[in-house]
Amino acid sequence: MGAYTLPDGFTDFDMFSFGSALLVGGLLGFFLNAISILAFITVKEMRTPSNFFVFNLALADLSLNINGLTAAYASYLRYWPFGQDGCDFHGFQGMISVLASISFMAAVAWDRYHQYCTRQKLFWSTTVVMSGIIWALSIFWAAVPLMGWGVYDFEPMRTCCTLDYTRGDRDYITYMLTLTVLYLMFPAVTMFSCYDAINKHFKKIHYYRFNTNLPLRVMLMCWGPYVLMCIYACFENVKVVSPKLRMVLPVIAKTNPFFNALLYSFGNEFYRGGVWHFLTGQKIVEPDIKNKLK
């Protein structure tokens, strides 16, 4: 291996530790989300409009897992081996994954509201169109920094790339605040309102099918601290924050795909039966939602 220079504030042990955290989180998420995707593809009974949202969420999260595993590989090397073009692509691919993942979490919440509260049937045409729009918008907003509104650059450890929040210029501020409104506040409000309505319905019928507080809490726990740091960078010099802390926050954020797989695939009554069928060959038992939610 060629010579390398450690980034400021990091030791060899730090590089190994962060790389190991990214590796473990990436592999766990990759394994669980790959099972979710394969189950949807191979088990015919799973292929419903509602489950298609969960399938797309797993695709977005699997892509984010790959992004994290690439960073883990570079961390073990102690340097970024793919050049500036590779950095731009890494940041672009990671941004698509994040924006799509958060959007599909909101879409699942919206769908669950109709499943449990309004009983409106979701059609394939609606699901496919919504999913296409989510992916198209995610690609568009991720591509914007490549066109000059914001910049992709290395994170403090210089083994992974993301939106450069250290510049603090007008382009970064306007882009970051736009993303915060569109891809954190709006999805969070959607999830809160949908799950709050579902929780009230569960209280009314005295039958709780899942914990309605977990989805939003998990999303905010994973992404909230990192987004707050990015917002802080809009108004203050973020370089005063320790480089190690600035690396801890994205590592925490990259655990979101693992928790999503547990919540939306393995913890979803309409999806976990198909996963079980895929893993064991035992037939799906469809939940009788119509009778139990009256």
From TrEMBL:
Membrane topology: Multi-pass membrane protein
GO cellular component: membrane
Transmembrane parts of this sequence: 20-41, 53-77, 89-110, 122-152, 172-195, 216-235
Record flagged with keyword RNA-binding: no
Subcellular location: Membrane
An individual GO BP term: visual perception
Name of the featured protein: RPE-retinal G protein-coupled receptor
Species assigned in the record: Menidia menidia (Atlantic silverside)
